[in-house]
Structures
1.
Amino acid sequence: MTLEEFAAEVSRESPNAFAIERGSHFDGYASACRDLGLELRRPDPKETGFYRGGRLIGEMRGMVPDLTSDEAVAICKDKTRALDLLKAAGVPTPQSRYFPPETGYDDAMRHWAEGQGDRLVVKPSDSYGGEGITVGVADAGAFRQAWDLARANLSDPSLPIILEERIDGLDVRAIIVEGRFVCAATRVQAHVVGDGRSTVAALVAAKNETRRRNPYHSNYALRVPAGQDDAIPAAGQVWLLTARANIHQGGEAVDVTDRLPPTLRAIAEQAAKAIPGLGVAGVDLIAEFEGGTGRVIELNTSCNFCVHTYPIHGTPRNPARAVLDCMVARANRGVLYRPRRSRGLVARLGRRMKRLFRRA
Ligand SMILES: Nc1ncnc2c1ncn2[C@@H]1O[C@H](COP(=O)(O)OP(=O)(O)O)[C@@H](O)[C@H]1O
Ligand SMILES: [Mg+2]
C-alpha cells in the first residue's frame, strides 16, 4: 500500500475524539500509576519518581525512563553511532554516508552528483522533530540548500551530516520496552485530500480546525508549502505537504499495533537490542506492510508517548504501562532501586539554579 493509498484510506474515517484539550507524555504514566497502585511524584518538571508504598521503585529524567542508560542516550543522540551499531547487528537500514560539516561539502556534493539525485536524504546527525532534514534533492542548488539547512540545525557542530538513501513506504514508530514490542503508530505525512474545488490553503485551514481538537496534534499546525496556496487538488487526490512524517511537521499518528506484520515487529525488537542499555526505545522505520519489509532510520530514547495515547485514527495505546510493569517486576524481584541523582531538596534546588543560569 502506498503512502497516498494509506492516507486516502484513513482520511475516510472520522478522527478520534478525546475528553481533554491538552495532552501530555505523562498522562499515560499517571493513568498506569492509578491502575498499578503507584504514586507519581514530579518535584521538578525534569524529574519524575514512581513510588510504591512510599518507596521509590523507578524514575524518569525528562522523558527517559531509568530502564535506559545514559550511554544509550548518548549513542542514540548521534544517529551515526546508532546506525553503525544497527548495521553491525545486521538490522536493515538505509545506505548512508557521513560528512564533516566544516570540510565535507565538496565530497558530499560529489556523492550526490554520482547519481542519488532525488533519491537522497540530507540530515544533521542529531536532528530532532524532523528539523533540518531534506528528503529528495532535485538539483545542485537544492543540494546546497539542503546542506546548509542540515548544518544550521546541527546542535553539536562537531557531528557529521548524513547523506542517506531515500526509502519509500510508511513511517512507523514502534515502541520496544526491554526488548519486547509494545505498540506502533504510522505517522502519515502532512497532507490534504482534494475536493476538486478548494485551494490547498483552504483545505489546510479546514484540516487545522479538526487538528485543533486533538490533545497532541493541536500543538503542531499544518503549514502550506511556499507557492502552493492557490493550487486546487483534484477530487480525492492526496496532496502531500511535506516529506517528513514527524508530528512536529504536521504528520498524523494512526495506530497500527495490530496491523504491523510480525517481521517488522522483529526488526524493531532487533534494532532496540542492538544498542546496549536501550531499555525503552522508539524505533523509527520506513516500512512496506504487504511485503513485511522495513528499514530502521533512527532510534529515539526520548519518545513522546502522545503519538500512541492520542492518535488521530486507530486505537489509543498506553506504552507507559509496559514501562511501569518492568519497574514493578524489578521491585518484585527484590532489586532495590537507587536514585540516579540525589533527590534531596538542596540538590534539587542546586540543579534548578544551574538551569536558570544557563538560560540567562
Ligand atoms: N532515509 C529516509 N528515507 C525517507 N524518508 C526519511 C529518511 N530519513 C528521514 N526521513 C523522513 O524524515 C523524518 C525524520 O527523520 P528521522 O531520521 O527520524 O529524524 P528526526 O530525529 O528528526 O525525527 C522521518 O520520519 C521520515 O519521514
Ligand atoms: Mg524520527
2.
Amino acid sequence: MAATTVPAPVEIGRSGEHDLRVVWGDHHESIYPARALRLACPCAACVDEMSGRALLDPASVPVHVHPVRVGLVGRYAVHLAFSDGHASGIFSFERLRALCPCPACRPV
Ligand SMILES: [Zn+2]
Ligand SMILES: [Zn+2]
C-alpha cells in the first residue's frame, strides 16, 4: 500500500504524563493512553510477522509506561520510543488512526 487514505498528523506530542496526543490533518484529535499504544506495537519483536501472533506479554509492560520519543517516519508513519526501553515501534498513520479510542472512532 503506497498511498494512505488517512490525513497526516499536523501535531504530535505528549498529553499529560502518560498519553500521546495527535492532531490530524482533518482536525481530528486523538488522545492515546501510552500503555495501549505500547501493547499495540506492531514491530517484529512484539508481533510475529508471519502469523500475526502477539509475542508481547502484556504483564511485562509497566503500568506507567510512557512515550519518551515521538517522531515522524517519512510521510507515512510515527515512530515511538517508550520508557520501558522499547524503541522499535513504527505506527503507520492508518494504523494509528485506526487505534483512536475517541467516541467518534469507536461507536458503541
Ligand atoms: Zn514492538
Ligand atoms: Zn477519533
